Amino acid sequence: MTNEYYWNCIPVGKESAVTYSALCAMWGKDRRTVREILHNLSLYDNGDNYILIRSSKDGGGFYKTDDQAELIAFKKECLNKGRSNFAPVKKINRVLNAQFEDLQEALFNNLRAARIQSGLKQDEVVERLRALNEPIDAPMLSRFESGQCLPMPSMLRKMAQIYRMQPEDLIAVNDTASLYVI
Fold this sequence. Notes:
Helix content is 59%, strand content 9%. By secondary structure, it is mainly alpha-helical. The longest helix has 39 residues, at 68-106.
């Protein structure tokens, strides 16, 4: 069955709202499948001006409407739910960023200094690493040197070989810092 079929089964108007149970019976589907169909219908746009509404008032149910006042109220409800769902994200980001900063402080990254000390340009290092079968480009090397990301151990060993250093001279963990692994 198509979205058009399911869309046409949804009644118009709040007074005709249909429940999950009624939709399950009407479509011969389990609750989870009906929820998926309703999700797809909320994204479905056949060019008409009706919007699928889930009413949580008076027993709840699903219906279509093009009534401007109802659409404005539903939009406000959706935005409030979104804000509520995303409210913890700010704190989560703060906590994760603090852990990442602790991790960054715990790392000693000497890649750029080692390259410069070796008298090599980024393009030269990239060329030598590619000759050693390492898939890398200058932007990736720059991200390694800035600490945005780190090379895999095999690449780190090859970089150490190019710079005539030990891998632990290029990147090391500061044992005095507390290290959080996310």
